[in-house]
Amino acid sequence: MSTGIKTAFITGGSKGIGYGVAEALIKQGIRVAVTSRSQGNADEAAQRLNAIKAGYAIGIESDVRNFASQQKAVQTVLDQWGGIDYVIANAGVGHFAPVQELTPEVWLETIEINLNGVFFTAKTTMDALRASKGYFISIASLAGTNFFANASAYNASKFGVVGFTQAMMLDVRKEGIKVSTIMPGSVATEFDNHTVSEKDAWKIQPEDIGQIVVDLIRMPARTLPSKVEVRPSMPA
Asked: b/e string for 80-117 if b means 16 or more Cβ within 10 A?
């Protein structure tokens, strides 16, 4: 049962932006459930987070492309902690190629993870958020309003996330649920098989997105920053 401690559910929370958000929230005394398609990765992330605040993190294996998998993950959190106050729909992939080279398989994977995954996460957590008067935050991208070459699948998925999240905000705000989307530019993560190094120091850091999430949930109840665009202050 709930003990009055707030709880967050973070998809793709074992690394990158998702882990940065989890770390920021746990430092605020908020329990975090982080999901990954790999139970090993989820457990490793939870272990590191519990080193910050013991007993405040759990790792859950879940595939955002699978509605039943998301239902099971959400139920695990409810069984463990009794409620969900914050949902961070973060899981995502990036495949970049011109349309001429883009395969149907890559297109479908991009849409299923980046867009369907946000919808499935919203649907499976809606009752819990309604009960807690909670907050749903999607991690989109500046690519959700700015198209560029070799990114047709990624652009389509992120344009969809922005549109879905903003429409959802209008659907549920009268029920006391807040909804925002964060749209980062270049972030220093392993996204698209990138290896993070000192050369990425100019980029937004995962903990910076974590700070934005903390700032959003600390906003007065009367105020909703529904869409937040964030860029590196000094691009390379």
From this structure: ebebbbbbbbbbbbbbbeeeeebeeeebebbbbbbbbb
Distances (CA, A) of 181 to 87, 90, 98, 114: 11, 10, 27, 13
Average pLDDT over every residue of 24-34? 98
Main-chain dihedrals φ then ψ at residue 147, nearest 5 degrees:
-85, 155
The CA distances from residue 140 to 49, 96, 156, 184, 229, in Å, are 24, 16, 11, 7, 9
> Is the overall model pTM greater than 0.90, yes or no?
yes
Q: How far apart are CA 158 and CA 144, in angstroms?
A: 4
Binned at pLDDT 50, 70 and 90, residue 4 comes out as confident
Domains of the chain: 7-230 (3.40.50.720)
Enzyme catalytic residues: 154
Report d(CA 60, CA 66) in Å as an integer.
Answer: 14
**Per-residue pLDDT, 188:** 87
Rounded to whole angstroms, the Cα distance separating 8 from 74 reads 11
